[in-house]
């Protein structure tokens, strides 16, 4: 059982999922410049977390079945986030409100340690991605994502993966063939 499956099991056992939301393709789960302090677990489908910079969409991360997704900046600060979360295909997500989550982690030191591990994991992933974008070639970025998250190539349309990797779809196709 992987880390996210363990989290899902633990959160289910403690009844943290308050409700389920069904999204149609391209429907927004979180709008740009809104406050969202929920944690989402993707039961089915796939999502993208993006931001617009100079009218260009920049994909920050993907989420697909059995992943957790959160607008972490808004979750932590209770302030509006430029991030938006949108369904790539039809989705069902389970919602954990921050209040329930906070009560859960404050009840037990083990839960607090788990939260720290989650944050460390997210920060490390984000740092690796930032370094990749700043220093790695297109091929290196492609290979790192392929090694780190091979499922993304099965679950996410290739045009969106190319955007995430900051390359053209043609470049991604060439890299996949080589």
Brief write-up:
The chain is of the alpha+beta class. Helix content is 48%, strand content 26%. The radius of gyration is 17 Å and the shape is globular.
Total helix count? Answer: 8
* Percentage of β-strand residues: 25-35%
Any low-confidence stretches, pLDDT <50, length ≥5? none
How large is the radius of gyration? 17 Å
Overall 3D geometry? globular
Arithmetic mean of pLDDT? 92
> Largest sheet, if any?
6 strands, antiparallel
Termini distance? 33 Å
Q: Output the structural class.
A: alpha+beta
Please trace the helix and strand order, writing H or E for each element. HEEEEEHEHHHHHH
Helicity range of the residues?
40-55%
Polypeptide structure, described:
It is a single chain. With 178 residues, this protein is α+β, with helices and mostly antiparallel strands. It is 48% helix and 26% strand. Strands 1, 2, 3, 4, 5 and 6 form a 6-stranded antiparallel beta sheet that branches. A hairpin with a 2-residue loop joins strand 3 and strand 4 (56-64). Helix 3 packs across helix 4 and helix 7 (158-164) packs across helix 8 (169-177). The longest helix has 27 residues, at 109-135. It is globular. 25% of the residues are buried.
């Amino acid at each position: 059982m992987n880390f996210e499956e363990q989290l899902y099991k633990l959160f289910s056992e403690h009844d943290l999922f308050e409700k389920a939301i069904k999204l149609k393709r391209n429907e927004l789960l979180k709008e740009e410049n809104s406050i969202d302090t929920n944690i989402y677990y993707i039961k089915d489908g796939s999502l993208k977390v993006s931001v617009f910079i100079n009218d260009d969409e920049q994909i920050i991360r993907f989420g697909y079945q059995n992943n957790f997704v959160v607008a972490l900046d808004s979750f932590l600060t209770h302030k509006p986030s430029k991030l938006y979360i949108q369904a790539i295909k039809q989705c069902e997500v389970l919602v954990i409100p921050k209040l329930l989550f906070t009560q859960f982690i404050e009840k037990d030191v083990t839960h607090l340690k788990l939260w720290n591990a989650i944050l460390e994991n997210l920060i490390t992933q984000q740092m690796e991605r930032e370094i990749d974008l700043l220093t790695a070639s297109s091929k290196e970025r492609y290979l790192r994502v392929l090694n780190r998250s091979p499922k993304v190539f099965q679950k996410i349309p290739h045009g969106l993966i190319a955007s995430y990797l900051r390359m053209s779809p043609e470049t991604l196709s060439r890299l996949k063939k080589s």
